[in-house]
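Morning run. Coffee first, then this:
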Amino acid sequence: MDIRLKPATEQRIRELASMSHRSVDDIIEDAVAGYLEHVAELRDMIESRYDDFKSGRVKPIDGETFFEALRQRGEELLKKRQS
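And here it is:
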């Protein structure tokens, strides 16, 4: 498989390979494997949350209400820090 990288990214990979005494292929393999693992975990989490929502275990909240509560909490924390 061939991949094309921006020159700056390729240079960073080469520098990391040199510093770590590993091959460029090993660095790229580890990076791609880690990325794929992260994507799989994220997908599992999203599917789980969707299942919770669909089953009724989690109730939707109004976005405006949420952000207003978040803003108020932020203001309260700032007041505590200032006193």
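The mean pLDDT is 95. Good start to the day.
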